[in-house]
From TrEMBL, chains A, B:
Listed name of the protein: CRISPR-associated endoribonuclease Cas2
Naturally occurring in which organism (per UniProt): Gordonia paraffinivorans NBRC 108238
Gene symbol of the encoding locus: cas2
Positions of transmembrane segments: none
Entry-linked HAMAP family: Cas2
Binding site for Mg(2+): D11
InterPro entries assigned: CRISPR_associated_Cas2, Virulence_VapD/CRISPR_Cas2
Similarity remark: Belongs to the CRISPR-associated endoribonuclease Cas2 protein family.
Broad class of enzyme this protein falls into: hydrolase
Role description: CRISPR (clustered regularly interspaced short palindromic repeat), is an adaptive immune system that provides protection against mobile genetic elements (viruses, transposable elements and conjugative plasmids). CRISPR clusters contain sequences complementary to antecedent mobile elements and target invading nucleic acids. CRISPR clusters are transcribed and processed into CRISPR RNA (crRNA). Functions as a ssRNA-specific endoribonuclease. Involved in the integration of spacer DNA into the CRISPR cassette.
Complex formation: Homodimer, forms a heterotetramer with a Cas1 homodimer.
Record Pfam families: CRISPR_Cas2
Cofactor(s) this protein requires: Mg(2+)
Keyword vocabulary terms for this entry: Antiviral defense, Endonuclease, Hydrolase, Magnesium, Metal-binding, Nuclease
Domain of life: Bacteria
Length: 95, 95
């Protein structure tokens, strides 16, 4: 299954929505920072992620940004200064 | 001057350091989210950014990640859900 690596970052205005977005993100990828995740997703997983996030965010108050970093395994590299984080090995934990 | 677009995100443990990192980031790029910036930087500007950040962060507590999104003008695209943000037109505000 071909996957692409995405960086997904979010600013969620409401604490309850923030917790729900975090739960969604943890099912699809790996936390790089407090509100920044790296996710290796197939096209189907990307559609599911989008539907799950759509259910939670308030489009007037919240902001989610997604950047396609390229094919899994050949994606843009991540340079880390300070406290390092593990990068995703492959694919979401739970579909 | 050839520039590349970088996504820079940070988790800074100490409020005073966080303010200083914010000031550094605002001089080099455009805020995409609370702790996520897009910066179009030449090689020289990248070296200066790194030196400036090095002066501020605590390598044991703080985390800064930087992802090269490609040449300015042909960089990886940013998909935004919810409240949109302006993307950088070009180059840092203050060298």
């Amino acid at each position: 299954m071909a996957r692409r690596r995405y960086l997904i970052a979010y600013d969620i205005a409401d604490p309850a929505r923030l917790r729900r977005v975090c739960r969604v993100m943890e099912a699809y990828g790996q936390r790089l920072q407090y509100s920044v995740f790296l996710c290796d997703l197939s096209k189907l997983e990307l559609v599911r992620w989008r539907a799950d996030v759509h259910e939670v965010i308030d489009y007037g108050e919240d902001s989610v940004v997604m950047i396609d970093l390229g094919p899994e395994g050949a994606a843009a590299s991540v340079t880390q200064l300070g406290r390092p984080r593990d990068l995703p090995k492959s694919g979401p934990a739970i579909i």
